[in-house]
Specification:
α22 crosses α25 and α25 crosses α26. The chain is α+β, with helices and mostly antiparallel strands. The protein has a 5-stranded mixed sheet with strand order 12-14-15-17-16. It has a 4-stranded antiparallel sheet with strand order 3-4-6-5, covered by helices on one side. The protein has a two-stranded antiparallel ribbon with strand order 1-2. The protein is globular and about 130 Å long. It is about 60% helix and about 10% strand.
């Protein structure tokens, strides 16, 4: 009995695939002048009317790359014609297709059976020969097609498009690439190289599908050539090539190199103030961050990309495939990608807001939805529980006229459909959809990290197997999915969590522990990267920039107005002012001298006690941070100890049962766990020793110190110290360290206390401001390091600690570095923190300065000479 499956065009109706071959004699029954009719028919999707007249043309095929040469029907037609026969095609769009071969007998002495047998042998031989020379024939045919597209009136765009499409579907070697590039030169018209670069762009896409390393070399070379080219729209062509290079980086083991390459380009485009380059680089980096699971960074970078673009034009006059990098088309594309990132983050309201913008524009401008946004809309509805409209959006893709040119989006729709059917408990239909998804992935070499998102049908197939209580098959599918997804950390975490649960349910606790350990390790890696790449949100950054600009503008306007208004009376008032100032300073100095004598007398008797008090307060904050730092290794020690306890019980059972080999294996596991316990114990010991070293008085000698590591260490200690005292406290931490600084000679304990004091003060003020419940306020503390050049010459390093707290009132700004001055409530500060910090920096030959704006925040700047 034949298995029925959904028809690819009928959207799930029962479909029974049937292929029929039949023969019959026509005309004379004696074989003299009669004919044999051979019919081969099927009930598949049929042949679209628009290509029906092309099917017997050489090299025309609708099959995926590598599955057809496009010469089969052409050769068959010629062979039958050589036998004085004819070939016809009948077609019904949804009813299948029929090929009729009318073969006339050529020799009265040869039976019809012999003639037909020879014909079949001839076809087989021809097919073998074609396979041997198919690649060369394809390249030759492409070149001929390109040449034929160059006509007197200009370019036959239809033929040219067919040629470049064939290039993208071909596997090219160096010789083929050289020949194609030489042919592309025929299309250069003065400075205009548009048509030539369309050929090169197709070559790049072919290499991306077949040789990712070679594609990177080729793409970067073309970018270098474009910088020297005078062709119109060179920026648009460069943008398309640059964006396309994201694919080989993203689907290989060179993602870190991709980060480096695009960040270097980003710096260059910033120096040039190149909006197109910045938009492209931010776009690509957003995709990289999504790949490694850092969705906040992905959203930030995509919004940065959009900020350099415009959507206010009716059209952007783009010419396929090179679209205006900052134009309307790319703007709507990037907006839809932001919606997709919010979907992955689980923020369905934001996802719907952004996706709807792009979806509505596609519907309005093109009178039909495009092929990318409906998938995201379907996922939003599915994950937010609005199941009634899921299939509506999926059908917009599955029945779209462009779906043949975008198999990755169709595969994504089928994956979503499979998940939807699981949700509605239609497991058979879910399985069929996921099998169709896998078929498209294999036929079109769709990578795991594809354009429409991560392709992971095995995960959803595993969900089906779990519902069917086929746990072993579900486990195998998840293990396969983990290997395929590789760098897709969020999805690997999802798979590992489910895998550990399944192993536990099936009683394989060893495998469950292994999966859980992998989960914890990967989660720690992700958390580490999130802290490493932490940053302001895009909206906060924009708001701060706008406020800074408005404040600067206001100051400038006020300054000009004041100068204009009071210049006429300024000179007269200046004489009186100087006299008054001199008299005031004389009296103030007398008064200050008396006060100073008394203060100095008291200070000498209490200074040492207060300094020690300040150091103990600093040590208390360090201690809280240390407790947090050693918690992780202690957790590992405890977990592995519990596992060893269970393994010892199993060892005893195996020994009692006489299973020596099993007992040895368990003992090896115990040994490995003991090594891990020892490793994490030493790690905790090292943390304690290191932290106590920083909290001690030290030798007081300068030593080479990594200032970036020191700053980062005290940032974490200050944060966790404050969290230990106030569990409700929370703040965003931003860092921007200059990796080129290297080590500098300082007293690490002293500079560490300065940094700790400044960071602790920053956390205190943002925490106080957050208690005011200001709408939209997000407490943020930032620490940066950079190289500087002091006025006296040489080189220095600059450490900046800034916050967005309430700022320092102007009336107390001059007092903040004075001993015993504090704005904190009684018992919460000694008033010596900034004073001691100022003295320590001065002792290092440096400077400690402050910039503040009341109500907006403060920034403390430490400048240290490198040669000190």
């Amino acid at each position: 009995m034949k298995k029925k499956s959904p028809h690819p065009l009928k959207g799930g109706e029962d479909y029974e695939p049937v292929v029929t071959i039949s023969t019959k004699r026509l005309g004379s029954p004696l074989g003299d002048g009669g004919k044999i009719e051979v019919r081969v028919s099927d009930n598949g999707g049929g042949i679209p009317q628009k290509i029906l007249d092309k099917i017997f043309q050489p090299f025309f095929t609708t099959k995926p790359t590598g599955q057809g040469t496009g010469l089969g029907l052409s050769l068959s037609y010629d062979i039958v014609k050589a036998h004085s026969g004819g070939v016809e095609s009948g077609d019904e769009r949804r009813g299948g297709q029929h090929i009729y071969n009318h073969i006339t007998s050529l020799n009265n002495k040869m039976s019809n059976q012999q003639s037909f047998l020879k014909l079949l042998i001839t076809l087989l031989l021809c097919t073998s020969l074609v396979n041997l020379s198919a690649q060369q024939s394809r390249v030759d045919s492409i070149i001929q097609l390109l040449k034929n597209s160059k006509i007197e009136k200009g370019i036959d765009s239809a033929r040219f498009t067919d040629a470049v499409n064939l290039i993208e579907k071909s596997s090219l070697n160096d010789e083929s690439i050289t020949v194609l590039e030489n042919t592309a030169r025929l299309f250069i018209n003065g400075d205009d190289e548009y048509w030539s670069y369309r050929v090169k762009y197709a070559i790049l896409n072919s290499l991306i599908a077949t040789d990712k390393t070679k594609s990177l070399v080729y793409g970067k070379y073309q970018l270098g050539q474009l910088e020297k080219s005078k062709t119109p729209k060179a920026t648009w062509i460069s943008g398309a090539v640059l964006r396309q290079l994201r694919l080989p980086y993203r689907n290989s083991t060179t993602l870190n190199e991709g980060f480096q390459y695009f960040n270097e380009n980003l710096k260059e485009y910033k120096l040039k103030n190149d909006s197109a380059g910045l938009a492209n680089c931010y776009y690509v980096l957003a995709g990289f961050y999504r790949t490694i699971g850092l969705l906040d960074q992905a959203i930030y970078h995509m919004k940065k990309s959009v900020s350099y673009m415009r959507a206010d034009t009716a059209t952007d006059n783009s010419i396929s495939p090179f679209f205006d990098p900052v134009g309307r088309r790319n703007w709507f594309n990037n907006i839809s990608v932001i919606g997709f990132y919010y979907l992955q983050k689980g923020d369905y309201n934001e996802a719907l807001k952004y996706t709807r913008i792009s979806f509505d524009d596609d519907t309005r401008v093109r009178s039909a939805s495009s092929i990318n946004t409906p998938n995201t809309m379907a996922q939003i509805k599915l994950l937010s529980g609005q199941l009634d409209s899921v299939m509506y959006f999926l059908d917009l893709v599955l029945t779209h006229e462009r779906n043949n040119s975008a198999p990755d989006y169709v595969a994504s729709s089928l994956q979503i459909k499979g998940f939807y059917k699981i949700k509605t408990d239609e497991l058979e239909e879910a399985e069929v959809a996921l099998e169709q998804c896998w078929q498209l992935i294999k036929e079109n070499n769709i990578p795991a990290d594809a354009r429409p998102g991560t392709m992971a049908p095995d995960y959803y197939m595993a969900l089906i197997r779990i519902e069917q209580k086929r746990m072993d098959e579900a486990i195998a599918l998840l293990e396969k999915d983990i290997v395929r997804l590789k760098s897709q950390r969020l999805y690997v975490l999802r798979d590992l969590k489910l895998l550990a649960s399944l192993h536990e349910q099936t009683g394989n606790y060893k495998k469950a522990n292994e999966a859980l350990a992998s989960f914890i390790s990967l989660q720690d890696s992700l958390q580490s990267d999130q802290e490493k790449y932490g940053s302001l949100s895009f909206e906060t950054e924009q708001e701060m920039n706008a406020k800074e600009l408005s404040i600067t503008k206001l100051k400038s306007e006020n300054k000009i107005a004041a100068l204009t208004k009071y210049f006429s009376v300024g000179i007269a008032a200046l004489v009186l002012l100087l006299a008054g100032v001199l008299y005031y300073r004389f009296k103030a100095k007398q008064k200050a001298n008396k006060v100073l004598e008394t203060t100095l007398s008291n200070l000498k008797s209490t200074q040492s006690q207060l300094i020690q008090s300040e150091k103990m307060a600093s040590l208390g904050e360090l201690t809280a941070g240390i407790a947090h730092e050693i918690q992780n290794p202690l957790n590992f020690v405890n977990n592995f100890s519990e596992v060893n306890k269970e393994l010892v019980d199993e060892l005893q059972q195996e020994l009692k049962a006489g299973k020596i080999d099993d007992a040895i294996e368990i003992s090896n596991d115990i040994k490995v766990n003991e090594e891990k316990i020892n490793h994490h114990g030493k790690r905790a010991d090292a943390i304690v020793k290191g932290m106590l070293q920083h909290s001690s008085s030290g030798s007081g000698k300068k030593e080479p110190t990594d200032i970036n590591a020191l700053a980062d260490e005290y940032l974490r200690l200050a944060y966790h110290g404050l969290r230990a005292k106030d569990k409700s406290f929370n703040a965003t931490m931003k860092t921007d360290y200059d990796a080129t600084i290297g080590n500098i000679n300082i007293i690490p304990q002293d500079i560490g206390r300065v940094i700790l004091n400044l960071i602790s003060n920053a956390f205190y003020v943002v925490n106080e401001k957050s208690k005011q419940n200001i709408a939209g306020y997000e407490p943020t503390v930032t620490i940066t390091t950079a190289s500087g050049q002091p006025p006296s010459g040489g080189r220095s390093i600059v450490i900046k600690v800034s916050d967005n707290g309430g700022g320092i009132p102007q009336k107390v700004l001059d007092k903040i570095f004075q001993p015993f001055f504090t704005t904190k409530p009684t018992g919460q500060g000694t008033g010596l923190g900034l004073s001691l910090s100022y003295d320590i920096v001065k002792a290092h030959g440096g400077e400690l300065q402050v910039k503040t704006m009341e109500g907006e925040g403060s920034e403390f700047i430490i400048s240290l000479p490198v040669n000190s």
